[in-house]
Amino acid sequence: MQLTSILLYQNLKEQFHIADYRLLSKNQPLARPFFFEADKGFKNNHIYLTDAILDLDVFSSIPEDAVLIICQKDETSHLPEGRFSCLLLSCHTSVIHVFNCIQSIFDYYEEWEGQLVSICHQNGSLSDLLEISQPVFKNPLCIMNMDFSLVAHRGLSQLPEEQQIFENHTLRLDYIHALIQDENFHLEDASPKPFLFPAYLTGHRSLNIRLFLDEKPAYQLSILENGTPLTDADWYLITILAHHAEYILHRMQSESSSRSTTLQSIFQSVLSDCTADYMGISHLLTNVGWLAEHTYLCSVIQTEGPSSLNGNTICQYIKNKFPASCSLVFKEYVVSFYNETLLKMEAEDIFRGLVYFIRDSMLKAGYSRSMCGHMNLRRQYLQGLTALTLGLEIRPQLWIHHFNQIALPYILRQSVKTFPGHMLCYEKLLDLQKSDKLQNTEYMKTLRVYLEHNLNTVQSAKALFIHRSTFLYRLERIKSILETDLEDPDELFYLNLSFRLLDNEEM
Length: 507
Prior knowledge:
By secondary structure, the protein is α+β, with helices and mostly antiparallel strands. About 50% of the residues lie in helices and about 20% in strands. The chain has four domains: about 5-110; about 125-255, GAF domain (Beta-Lactamase); about 275-415, Alpha-Beta Plaits; about 420-505, Orthogonal Bundle (Arc Repressor Mutant, subunit A). α1 crosses α6 and α4 packs antiparallel against α6 (about 230-270). This is PucR C-terminal helix-turn-helix domain-containing protein. It comes from Blautia hansenii.
């Protein structure tokens, strides 16, 4: 690994006093050092050391891509004018010691790079890369998806509580919005170069670089300044780490793409083809390890609205959060299927895992019921879609809607598609309704309260704020009009349902 001139400077500054320096380029790559010999001159891209007093014409012969290091004891010396790169060290150690120190600097970074290469070639993980890199950067490191979900990290626990942007959901959302608005971050101008994010929000600066897959920004590597100030050298070192992180990400993508593509193809058929061969789909799912005895859940997330996240970003977030899941953009929704058995989760665990993401991203979601097997997968999608659309109609202020919460309103709406509620309800109930209008009675209200209190006369009378004898008189009149004794369970169920059918007709 070659050092850059700024990396050389930063490391030497930690060990020696630098009386003066000039660097034509901070990013000039440099090979291992030589001792300067006047009769041999300079080679390009190299470091040279000397403790001799040099004539001015020597400085004019230094190539612009070489760096000369002068070791001396006089702290008041300074460099002559000219276009050359040079470090003037004021130290009492020998030039040989400085030479050996520079060799050690090369050895240190070459060993680090060798470890990075070894991890990449031995199927290591992103976490492995960050673990061996944190001592190099001396600050916490993390790799995030473009939706800012953590993929790998090292040292985040060192951050003070008020700076825990990935643990504090409110702070994380503020950080996301601020970073998105930062002029260096705009995705349409995606650049592979590092960029600095200031400390005004989280209390620490971060040096960031995008990681690309298929020539598109897919992840972000960040150094979070905590205790050790970020240096110009970090701008070079983060590009080295990013290169190896991209290698692992491409390998991970290659390993998962076949299985993910297969799952997406299967579920695309489930969603788009209502006549699909479910026995064939079951066989295909079994081949990728999603078995008929497994339990599945479906979510449907609305992509249109105030959220700044697109469908593919939402899919990627869910994939990272729940490995045993499959998400795809279908029409204007993100539809996700979760294998609860492989995830070793129940539906409630999945709900909790997504609740902050849905809320903070200003999304709207509907969930199906959990079901076992492959035969109901399309029906689960329809359940999730119904939960979302009907839930938004009934309770638009909520972010999340569950099918269980809207099942009864759904049944009532389905039942009146052919006939209105007054044509489906208990026929004699209309006579009660007519009596209330013509004679100003309260028979409908009285019967409804009676049914709601499970035929308890005392509690019903209290709820209506009338005397028990008054209630019993009304009840006898109701039974007479309905021509029933209100004892048949089926009849009581029909009456309860009839009230809801009429309610639904009035909406």
